[in-house]
């Protein structure tokens, strides 16, 4: 813990760069970041944790998202911390849509080093944030800072976005430090994206509903979600039978400070694996989708980590990549920052094209926006989301399910 009263942007980015190197060493995306108070004291620094022990640990464990959850967890423990408006996150890489949504939902400031032309919120370097819903653009312009990189190399740039906070002494990043932030991410990006998509193809998957009740995979599923495998529909076609599970989670979401959202995960056979509520009272960014996608990833991680080759083979056959299944949101995306975070986290869960035979992997029951508006919102997202994954939230086809939740 530093107790300096002030810090250079350069010194802060150097800490983020060191964290990014640690992330690369761990075998995950080479991205790091830190959180500063209103005097420039370092409150916390950490790095990406998407991959641990050579396995997918948590697709949402990006640096900025973890820093924000850390902030809320500390406050929940009773620690006095400045308001988000007085906090600055410094990150080695331009925030993705998930992290940008989380930053905007909380009201934090952010200083960004390297650009990310695939998933960065400022991927076009305009600092206009046209990728965001219109209502969030001005807030991003006031809180996302891209300091100047002085020099003449390809890493040089003029300052754009918001001015760095006044506690920073120097307000520029050196070319070598900026280059380090870029290169360490570029050195990891393709490999980690491949690891997030190295699961068995759907035809090789086996139905977990055929396993005996005392099988380790069934027990782990039921421990995570007691109603796992008690509902089944035709693949990708949720019907009214899913309503009681969603309604129960929606009620729990309201108890936990949310607006009554819930997200179910069905596997490629139509089995219900999980249906989670958010935990918004613990952290303003623990939405139902964040809880669901993280719970599924961590369930697989726990079963795979340290298991024998035969056990790992079993887990990979019975618990496939979520892209082959269906996420069913009780409420469709809207134009809020939390909803944008969810869309981004969905992208971070996929990290590659949706299967051609499963274009409606993302389904919702109750619409929050007219379909054309929602399609336009998704079509404006950075290239990873709109061109590679092709995020396309679609309302469930079953009218009885819609009526049951209305
Ligand atoms: Zn991110």
From TrEMBL:
Keywords tagged on the record: Metal-binding, Zinc
Alphabetized InterPro entries for the sequence: APOBEC/CMP_deaminase_Zn-bd, CMP_dCMP_dom, Cytidine_deaminase-like
A Pfam family this chain is assigned to: dCMP_cyt_deam_1
Chain coiled-coil ranges: none
Domain (CMP/dCMP-type deaminase): residue spans on this chain: 7-132
Protein name: Nucleoside deaminase
Organism field: Duganella dendranthematis
